[in-house]
Amino acid sequence: MPSSLPLGDPAPADGALPPQAAVAAGERGFSLYAHIPFCAVRCGYCDFNTYTAIELGGGASQANYAATAVSEVRFAAAALDASGVPRRRLSTVFFGGGTPTLLSAQDLTAILSAAVAEWGLEPGAEVTTEANPDSVTPASLQALAEAGFTRVSFGLQSAVPHVLKVLDRTHTPSRVPEAVRWARDAGLDVSLDLIYGTPGESRDDWRASLDAALACEPDHVSAYALIVEDGTKLAAQIRRGEVPEVDDDDHAEKYELADAVLGSAGFHWYEVSNWARGAAGPGPQSARFECRHNLAYWNGGDWWGIGPGAHSHVGGVRWWNVKHPTAYAGRLSQGVSPAAARETLDDGTRRVERVLLKVRLASGLPTSDLDAGGRAAVAGLIADGLVDGPTALRGRLVLTLRGRLLADAVVRALLP
């Protein structure tokens, strides 16, 4: 089952936010995340808050979900208004899951249209949906593009059948280039998600997946090391000895290979696990294909998360919705907030989170965000080859390739 929610303070039934949420809100961007919690099959490695049809009942059906999500959009707008947070046009919208495209294009459009009716979209706003390659058609992608979607992120994960089998992925690798072509025909930007380090995946398997991804000519690639979460089917298989353990050295070798292959193909890394087409550097062209929605998270922006288990953040106030779709729908049907709990971040916690997130970005972490102990650690990080020396001397910490492999160790050094 999906992992448990964090603890926190009680969340008010009317969704009201404390006064600090409105301070300087007009100077910050605003994004929307819409969680679609449905999957056709639960993958063996997955720990996300998702459900198959047989796991649900009551008022949580896919058929009713769009209407329920729209009701939260309207609830969110009213709650922000009542809290004195000025209305801002959305700079990014992201539909994640689960498999958002298990809902019809009409349902996804209904949720987006409700959000646009409340807040509007900034010119050139990024609107993304995740999708499995086997959950789209040329017609559905065209309908999404016509509704205002600009980007689709396909879960490729691997191009090697025996690796996909371990992951319990249901699509066939040959479907991916076809789905990408349909998205291109609809005028959508395309991102591909990959996972490396699956038990039984060889270096040649991983290279084959990278080559297959690049052959699709995507605009963006995400590559994540497989993490075995407690309570998943894969964790049980490893515990029983049915599949081998994951290996940190194997992960490091495959990350280095990904960075080399993607770099040679004209992609630049802009976050430890993310590469975008185009040369690195300042200016809008270099950032054209970076995922602006995720950058909003990493840079501490404001966003409202729609859906069961979705997290939100506005002005240092963070909250999260109840997990189960039935409970989520029930609260909204009663006109009360679906939030399970919330927390108000103090200055120290916000500083720690800035370090945790910004150090992973190619744009770097300003040394001014560090306390005295963190600044004292910088010289050692330079000496160990974990951060770029000249850039650090100019007041910004940027990870080297070795530093990206040891990003957690860098964070520990900066937060003594």
UniProtKB/TrEMBL annotation:
<dbReference type="InterPro" id="IPR013785">
    <property type="entry name" value="Aldolase_TIM"/>
</dbReference>
<dbReference type="InterPro" id="IPR004559">
    <property type="entry name" value="HemW-like"/>
</dbReference>
<comment type="similarity">
    <text>Belongs to the anaerobic coproporphyrinogen-III oxidase family. HemW subfamily.</text>
</comment>
<keyword id="KW-0004">4Fe-4S</keyword>
<dbReference type="GO" id="GO:0005737">
    <property type="term" value="C:cytoplasm"/>
</dbReference>
<dbReference type="GO" id="GO:0004109">
    <property type="term" value="F:coproporphyrinogen oxidase activity"/>
</dbReference>
<keyword id="KW-0949">S-adenosyl-L-methionine</keyword>
<dbReference type="InterPro" id="IPR058240">
    <property type="entry name" value="rSAM_sf"/>
</dbReference>
<keyword id="KW-0349">Heme</keyword>
<protein>
    <recommendedName>
        <fullName>Heme chaperone HemW</fullName>
    </recommendedName>
</protein>
<dbReference type="InterPro" id="IPR007197">
    <property type="entry name" value="rSAM"/>
</dbReference>
<keyword id="KW-0143">Chaperone</keyword>
<dbReference type="GO" id="GO:0051539">
    <property type="term" value="F:4 iron, 4 sulfur cluster binding"/>
</dbReference>
<keyword id="KW-0408">Iron</keyword>
<dbReference type="Pfam" id="PF04055">
    <property type="entry name" value="Radical_SAM"/>
</dbReference>
<feature type="domain" description="Radical SAM core">
    <location>
        <begin position="24"/>
        <end position="268"/>
    </location>
</feature>
<dbReference type="GO" id="GO:0046872">
    <property type="term" value="F:metal ion binding"/>
</dbReference>
<keyword id="KW-0963">Cytoplasm</keyword>
<keyword id="KW-0479">Metal-binding</keyword>
<dbReference type="InterPro" id="IPR006638">
    <property type="entry name" value="Elp3/MiaA/NifB-like_rSAM"/>
</dbReference>
<comment type="function">
    <text>Probably acts as a heme chaperone, transferring heme to an unknown acceptor. Binds one molecule of heme per monomer, possibly covalently. Binds 1 [4Fe-4S] cluster. The cluster is coordinated with 3 cysteines and an exchangeable S-adenosyl-L-methionine.</text>
</comment>
<keyword id="KW-0411">Iron-sulfur</keyword>
<dbReference type="GO" id="GO:0006779">
    <property type="term" value="P:porphyrin-containing compound biosynthetic process"/>
</dbReference>
<dbReference type="InterPro" id="IPR034505">
    <property type="entry name" value="Coproporphyrinogen-III_oxidase"/>
</dbReference>
